[in-house]
Protein 1
Amino acid sequence: MQFLWAFIIGGLICVIGQIMMDVFKLTPAHTMSTLVVAGAVADGFGLYDPLVKFAGAGASVPITSFGSSLVHGALSELQRDGWVGIVTGIFEVTSAGISAAIIFSFLAALIVRPRG
Amino acid sequence: MPASTKKGNKFSLDNLSSQEYKSIAQKHEPKRSIFKNCILAFLIGGAICLLGQAIQQAFMALFDMSTQEASSPTVAVLIIISVILTSCGVYDKFAQVAGAGTAVPVTGFANSMCSAALEHKAEGYVLGVGANMFKLAGSVIVFGTVAAFFVGLVYAIFGLEGVHHQ
Amino acid sequence: MRLKGQTWEFQAKPRILASATVVGPEEGQGPLASDFDYIYDNLEINEKTWEKAERKLLEQASQLAVVKAGLTKEKIQFFVGGDLMNQIISSTFAARTLGAPYLGVFGACSTSMESLALAALLVDSGAAELVLAGTTSHNCTAEKQFRYPTEYGSQKPPTAQYTVTGSGCGIVGKKGNGPVIARATIGRVMDLGIKDPFNMGAAMAPAAADTIEAHFRDTGLTPGHYDLVVTGDLASVGLPIAKELLQKAGVRMEQTKFGDCGLMVYDMQKQTYVRAGGSGCGCSAVVTYGHLLKKMTNKELKKVLVVATGALLSPLSYQQGESIPCIAHAVALEMED
């Protein structure tokens, strides 16, 4: 069942992040940036899509999929519009995630104070 | 000047090298429980992805969406959940236990933006919330974008075809 | 005043006439709660922002100290203060409220003893009759400025420390019964290459050891002269390191009790969220001005050396890959018979 693999693959990607933070002493920002780039490169080699097919949310929820989605956007626009497409298409797929994060964080800041 | 020391004692704080000191300091450093942290990251990170899977299946069943179509609303729902938990002041408590388990999924991305937005409300909405929201998430977006650009460039230069768009 | 090396030996007996401490809820749940003058039940200190909260703590502590000394704020001739915020803004606003001529100092978490040493010097030399020394810190302002937004989900390592939410002030003068400020040793910056801002204890231990060694060398005293020597906030990681350094350097700390304020201010068993222990300007300030002075007035302690330790990094210096320079200032407090 895809549910099982979603749990396992998602968990394993998190373990990779944990090892980067605990063993290599990277900051969260460095860790996430590395994972995003890893996801983008993996998608460049055509490896991330099969992982998503196999593990479902286990591959599409971690931040690595953000990198892969950015590449998707760039490549599909490249196909459609040529070289310009690399730049115009990058945020195509990820727009929902970024917009949602901005909008809801802003709304939260309207209503709530930090608790400390 | 070094303190008067017992005869033959060559140790002096003045002459202590950075290397020597670091080995003294290392001895007293409590070790991070790496194994326990990895187990917790695995379980909690896996559970969040499981939740994502359930939400995705729900969208597909209820709104007759394909996997591709359901991924955006799934990510949006997880982001909303993360913003709510951050606003309630509990996300950071989970994160202390889960480590990468809450940081690596997209929930961590939303938490980084929401926490920065809340914190800088004190400086107003424009200069505070607006200007600081991407304080932590900015690196992820910048590096992701630059990496995607270079991947795209490689594809363009070598005239590659990807099985990327549906 | 006699100058010996980097130590001032005060001859004219400047004393702490009165002191006051105001703390937040978590310090109120610690073992020293009954020694603090006022405990707030909310981290916001009833204010709209964390920065206003930090300022309010110092304003209240300074006002309370003035009242306890039986004075009015107009009688305070100088205010020596500082804090962790950029441009020590919390102390500046508190100075505005107090209205006294202001000497702002930055010593990070060593500010409590740096300001007290300077206040004692002013009084001892006749440059002033009544000086207020004080400092403040707040957990959330420190997290916001030096580390991450308070709601951010980062996992803190076991070496991390917890900034105390609290303010401590003392009024220094000659006419009164409080403990005498016998001597003060001004520290020099020590930097042994530690870069990890989540391991302040290891960064600061050499500074504490250096100042303690200098103190005993300059004065010719032995550690046994004091009933208690406390460092400001080395906590569970830094204190053992300082002990090892001093033992290697031949300073016989086993002649006295050697402790740390960061390990005293919180219940290390129950308040595990503090990890290695307390830190911040307020840490040594509230423990000294609240707890230690009380013990001295009760004659449970006669001679105490407080060695406040500070990590002098800036939010930028760490990002630029610099190591953490640290300092420690020591003040000796002695009750007369």
Note: The longest helix of chain C spans residues 200-219.
Protein 2
Amino acid sequence: MHRRAALAVAAAGLLALGACSAGDLGSSDDGTTVSFLVDNEPSTVKNSEALAKAFNAKNPGIKVKVETRPQGGEGDNIVKTRLATGDMANVFAYNSGSLFQALKPEQNLVALDDQAYQSTIDQVFKTTVTSGGKVYGAPYGAAVGGGILYNKAVYSRLGLQVPKTWAEFMANNAKLKAAGVAPVVQTYQDTWTSQVIVLGDFHNVAAAQPDFADKFTKNQAKFATTPAALRSFQRLQEIHDAGYQNSDFASLKLEQGLKMLAEGGGAHFPILTFALATLAANNPDQVKDVGFFALPGDDADKFGLTVWEPGAFYIPKSTTGAKLDAAKKFVAFAVSKEGCDTIIKTTTPGGPFVIKGCTLPDNVPPAVKDMQPYFDSGANSPALEFLSPVKGPALEQITVEVGSGIRKAADGAALYDQDVKKQAQQLGLPGWS
Amino acid sequence: MTSTVEDRRAETRGTAAAIGRRARARSAYPYWFYLPAAIVYGVLFIVPTFASFYFSLTRWTIFDYKFIGLDNFIQFFQEPALVKGFTNTIIYAVVTSGLKVVLGLLLAVLLTSRIVARGYLRSVVFFPVLVSTIGVGITFTVLMNPQHGLINRWLAVVGVDGPAWLTDPSYALLSVALVAVWKGVGLATIIYIAGIVSIPQDYFEAARVDGASSFQSFRHIVLPLARPATVTVVILSLIGGLRSFDLVWSMTRGGPGFTSDVIASVIYKQYQAGFYGLSTAGNVVLFLVVTAIVVPLFWFLSRREVEQ
């Protein structure tokens, strides 16, 4: 008797497991379940869980469940494979710009341009999630700046001024080195961080040659042969040649680099400002000592910030029926004022939001406040990867080589041009075959 | 008693021979018995192999593909990282198999001599072979950290300024190769132990009677008679070295920059970047290269064995 009961329980358990498997499209008794796939970066997970919780509390008929995936190249593959096999979560978060273009949005994603909230979204952001004239995404989180986090305490101790040109920046570095502080923190164990000096310099490239992004996409402009673009690689080399990096740059990881900056062991850290969330979590007492300025160029009048647009929410075509409605409702909630506030409460935003009505509170770290003037005055440009679908995957290895003195700047730029060609051909862009 | 066992053995041998004869004439099993294995093998090995030959001639995404002829191969051979990857692969294969031969032989000589705790020492030498490669890679990455790693701290105690093992471009590949040797030398040692133990003691006794020193008996008895073991060790470690990936990837990811890239890591990076056609072409190239090296080597060595 007992045994039969146990068997029945086991069978029921199996049935229940079957009912909530990934491919299930129907809704269970207590409403619709929406799966939501995000990458496993800790602050992204925290924000996503918070959004799901707030949404579920407001919508008793719908249950949003967060799933995670790896970051970087491995994550890209998972997203593409799941889309191709029709096995994608009901909503997923992914990059905007060049990576979004590689998803074949027309084939795989549900267009979101009829949604009421689109009128509140920043126009520049929309272009980064548009394909074939239709908008497919809604912004997730804040825009971030690519520039230099600096230690204000060190600056005031040595009487330094925020530089507006590259020459001033290098002069500051010389003084810092003389004072025994590592002028520029680099963390090449997280290879992607090595790209920031090159990518964050794009505002200066665009200021010198406004049509660079367009020509670059059409295979008419190259990094190696465009002086302003080559300059980005040369800046990276100059920092290495002058010996301005921390001595352990090759073996440090991002988190250790942020710690070094916060504690004053290093004065400048070229990085994307979303790293502030980690810095604020690990060094809560020193976050007030950290400020931010854009990567300076050669002309003080054109000083401005390179901006990384936030990632976005997307809904795959495999989401249909009641789940599609629920998914759209969730995305609409996430980009509402309430959604922004949930994110702000959960983690430290790395910059301003691209949604009208979402303003940053007064208690954000000073480095985030330092970004505001660039937005107010309009002295900013989106990073190249948001203006062109072409981005070579090997840039981080190339910049590690240039930044470690293994390869010269000109050679690195030429190698990157070759790398980019493969990406353009893979995307089937005209003018590259 | 002994005779019964002998009889039974002879009987068994007779039956086995009979089965062998019958098998040659007509299979003991109906053909559909092979079907499940054939389907699994066909679907998982044969079809993908031939499909990959075709897809190496296309530029494909997960969603569609376009035939482009030999462009992928041209592109692949123009890949600057590839030249580096090729030389690195060869350096890595030669260094690891060379060191495994030398160290494996010396350890085997030590572990076949009469020393204390011989069995224990044999297991200690063999132990790293059993550990997960990724685990070894991560552990050594920590140990080899230039500032905080245990290795350089110990070196500092003796007053040596240790190099940046994994982050200095001139040492990175060799550091990985050293770890590969540490991990793989146990297997080479076991093969050598088996080879040395099988040398008849008579030779050593005869040599001793003739007044040979221990070095002379090593040079003129152990070295030539352990040759089959040397061949096995060289082939195994050469093939292992040519297709090495896991240790390189877990320790340096081919870095810093491209300086410790091997063929397999170059291919993996192309795949990761979404250049599926290019990485398929790379795998076809790797397949051909390994075949081109191993088949003649295998043919050459098995011919030598027949001659012997």
Note: The first strand of chain A starts at residue 32 and ends at 39.
